[in-house]
Structures are given as structure tokens and as C-alpha cells.
Specification:
Length: 312
């Protein structure tokens, strides 16, 4: 399992580990910790702008997709706003099954890093509790019914990412970012965050800036070094926190700007899936260099489509 796990830790401990090399094979912590202070300042300024400018509001009501009409409406919302909030895509029991396995992994990582642990990324296998949950999320009346209505996805879209992202108490707010460049030489990515537990405001829910999956937004908002022009454009948008209930999800166009919140509570875990219409490149085109798919090689090589998952 360890080759499928990576950790982000407090910068001070990161430096200490470089000295003694005692990371037990968990892999390097994120290079972002080297600029943590700058990113904390910038992400805080972005959040302040949303609040002061009145752009931050409640998330749209999560919806159930139980009919063709509801699936079509959800697909239209996804195209228009860049994200759609979904209710009860997985049972609470299925979420508990995955969460129990994730806790074992995260606890073992925490035993190495202690209170300095900020984030654990776990590439999970497509089996057992994880597969049972994914089949619920994708199954008839679920995400497949939505993505199959989009020309740049279709039911032949391939699962190119499957992992659990878990943040711990003390994790900083991320700067606003999309997961993929607007001009990527492949079809748009569509990602799903599934809440494995109730996500409260103190856990640092992901904030989405709706309607920013377009070229104009990508031209306006840089990765860092925001100025008055960017803050003024931000407050004209609708921003919302994904305070999901266990088993709820947000399906979003990965070009949509978002930021993970500051975790002031404790472990918050999301199962994440990403789908891409073929052809499938060896790596995604993101704004950051050296990007890789967040998925185990054996799962990626299987090239599971939405249709495959529904058929089992």
C-alpha cells in the first residue's frame, strides 16, 4: 500500500525529514510546503474578498437524479455552472466501508508524522468497499446518466483517477485553482468528490467558484499573484462551500476554479473520481508541471468506462 500513499506535512518537519530520511518510504511531501506562508496569505486574501464582496453564499441544494428529466437538468447545470451538487449518490454504509479502510492507512501515516501531518493522498484499488461505493455512484440514475448526456464526456468516458484525499487539522486553505488547463490537448476532465462523512464548515470544505470553467475565467485568474483586477472579477462570481452530507457528492468540470478550505477540526476524507473521454494521454495537462494521474497503474491500465462500471 505504501507505494500508493503520499503525505503533505508541516514545513518544519519536512526539513527535519530531509536531514534524517526517516519517512518510512511514504514518498516525498509536497514541494508546496516550501512556499506555505505565501500561499496561506494569498488564499486567505481570496477568501476575504469573497466574504467582503458578498460573493460567498450557500451551496445549491443537492439534488437526486432518479429520472431522465432529472439527469438532463443536472447535465445542463453542470455545463452552465461547472458543478452540480448531488444527493445520496452512495449509501452511508458504503461510505463507512471505505472510510474504515482509509482511516487505517491515514492512521499509519499519522504515526510517522504525528501532528505535523496535513494531508494524505491514497490511491485505492478498484475492489472491495471502494468498488461497491463507486458502482453506486456511477450506476443507473447516477453520474453515468449525467455524463452520458455531455458530448465531451459520453458513457464511454474512462476512469483516469481514483483516490482518497484526506486532510487533517491544521491543513491550510488552498489557493484558487482549476485541476486542468482550459487549453489542454484532451477532452475536459469531469471529477466527483464523494463525502465519506458529513463535511462541516470547520473541516475546510472545498469552495467552488461557479461558472469559471470558461476561457475568460482562465485568462482572468492566474495561479498566484492576484491583484485588484482579479479580486474585482472574483466578487462578481457565485462562490459556495461544499458542505456535503455523507453519501452526497459534487460533480464538476475540472476546469472550474475551487479551493480546499482550512481544516480546523480533524480528518476530512473525500473519495475522488475523474473521467475523461478518449483518447487518454499518459498524463493530464495541468497548470502545474510534472502532473500525473492520481490512480494506481493497475486501475488506470484497465481503462474502466462508465458503461463498464455499470455493467460490473
Amino acid at each position: 500500500m505504501r507505494e500508493h500513499v503520499s503525505a503533505v506535512v508541516d514545513p518544519a518537519l519536512d526539513a527535519a525529514l530531509e536531514d534524517d530520511g526517516d519517512d518510512e518510504g511514504l514518498g516525498p511531501s509536497s514541494p508546496a510546503v516550501a512556499v506555505a506562508a505565501h500561499l496561506r496569505s494569498e488564499s486567505g486574501a481570496q477568501r476575504d474578498a469573497m466574504v467582503r464582496g458578498g460573493a460567498l453564499g450557500p451551496a445549491p441544494t443537492a439534488r437526486r437524479v432518479r429520472s431522465d428529466a432529472e439527469a438532463a437538468e443536472a447535465a445542463a447545470t453542470l455545463l452552465r455552472e461547472g458543478a452540480v451538487f448531488l444527493k445520496d449518490v452512495a449509501s452511508r454504509e458504503a461510505c463507512d466501508g471505505v472510510m474504515n479502510e482509509v482511516n487505517e492507512v491515514c492512521d499509519s501515516v499519522e504515526a510517522v508524522y504525528g501532528d505535523a501531518l496535513r494531508r494524505t493522498d491514497v490511491k485505492v484499488g478498484f475492489e472491495g468497499a471502494t468498488r461497491a461505493l463507486v458502482e453506486q455512484v456511477i450506476g443507473e440514475g447516477g453520474v453515468r446518466a449525467i455524463l452520458s448526456r455531455l458530448d465531451d464526456a459520453t458513457s464511454e468516458a474512462v476512469m483516469v483517477e481514483l483516490s482518497v484525499l484526506a486532510t487533517e487539522k491544521g491543513a491550510d486553505r488552498q489557493v484558487l485553482h482549476p485541476d486542468v488547463s482550459f487549453d489542454a490537448p484532451h477532452a475536459p476532465l469531469y471529477s466527483i468528490f464523494i463525502a465519506l462523512q458529513d463535511v462541516t464548515p470547520s473541516m475546510g470544505p472545498t469552495c467552488f467558484v461557479l461558472g469559471t470553467q470558461d476561457k475568460a475565467s482562465h485568462d482572468t485568474f492566474p495561479m498566484t499573484k492576484w491583484g485588484d483586477e482579479q479580486f474585482a472579477a472574483l466578487v462578481e462570481k457565485k462562490c459556495c462551500d461544499a458542505t456535503l452530507r455523507k453519501g452526497d457528492a459534487v460533480l464538476y468540470d475540472a476546469r472550474t476554479f475551487h479551493q480546499g478550505g482550512a481544516n480546523e477540526y480533524g480528518r476530512r476524507a473525500l473519495l475522488t473520481l475523474t473521467f475523461l473521454k478518449p483518447p487518454i494521454p499518459a498524463a493530464p495537462t495541468r497548470r502545474n508541471a510534472n502532473a500525473e494521474w492520481s490512480i494506481r497503474d493497475d486501475v488506470f491500465n484497465a481503462q474502466w468506462t462508465l458503461d463498464d462500471i455499470v455493467r460490473g
